[in-house]
Amino acid sequence: MTERERTEAEAVAQDEEGSDPEGSDPAAQLRRERDEYLDSLRRLKAEFDNFRKRTARESAARSARASEALVKELLPVLDDLERALVAAEEHEEAKLEDGVRLVHRALADVLARAGLGEIETDGAFDPHVHEALLTQAVDGAEPGSVVEVLQKGYRLGDLVLRPARVVVAE
Asked: Which residues constitute the domain of residue 153?
C-alpha cells in the first residue's frame, strides 16, 4: 500500500468514525485492523529482505577475508619456490633439494595453521577416512589392516577433504 493509499484509507476511516461518534462500527474497525496488519506484514517483509541481503554481503566479505589471509600466508612459500627454481637453473642439486624441503615444510606449516591435518593410516581400515584401492595377502598382517598408503588423505577440522588411498590386507 502506497503512502497515498494509506492516507486515503485513514481519511475514510476518520469519516466513518465521525459519522459514528461511539466508534462502534464493526466494519470500519475491521478495516483499520486489516490495514494495520497489512502494514506490519509489509514492514516485516522489508526487514527480512534487508536482513537476507545484509547476511549475504557479510558472508561474502568473511569469505574474502579468509581467502586473503590464506593467500598472504602462502606468498612466502611462492617466494621460496621461485628461489628453488633459480637454484635449479644454476645446477646446484644439493641446494635445490634443500630448497624443496624447506618449501615443503613451509607449505605444510601454513596448511596446518589453517586446520589441515593428515589422516592416520596406521592400523585398521576405516571406510569413513580410507579408500581401499587394492586388497593383498600379506604375511604377518592382520586382515583388514592398512599395509600400504598410495596417496595421503587430509582433513580440514572434522571434514575429510580427501580420503587416504590405501592397500588393505586380506
From this structure: 117-170
With beta carbons less than 8 A apart as the criterion, state whether 121 and 164 touch: yes
**Residues 122, 108 within the same domain:** no
CATH number at residue 4: 3.90.20
Dist CA 146 CA 135 (whole Å) = 9
pTM: 0.56
Give the CATH number of the domain where residue 147 resides.
Answer: 2.30.22.10
> In this structure, are 132 and 108 located in the same domain?
no
CA dist 35 and 29 (Å) reads 10
For residue range 35-75, what is the model confidence (pLDDT) as tens digits? 999 999 999 999 999 999 999 999 998 888 887 888 788 88
Please indicate, yes or no, whether residues 144 and 103 belong to a single structural domain of this protein: no
CA distance 31 to 120: 69
Enumerate residues 6+ apart whose C-beta is below 8 A from 168: 125, 130, 132, 134, 135, 136, 144, 145, 146, 147
Whether residue 6 sits in one domain with residue 59:
yes
* Chain segment 123-143, per-residue pLDDT in tens: 899 999 999 999 999 888 889
Report CA 58 to chain centroid distance, whole Å. Answer: 13
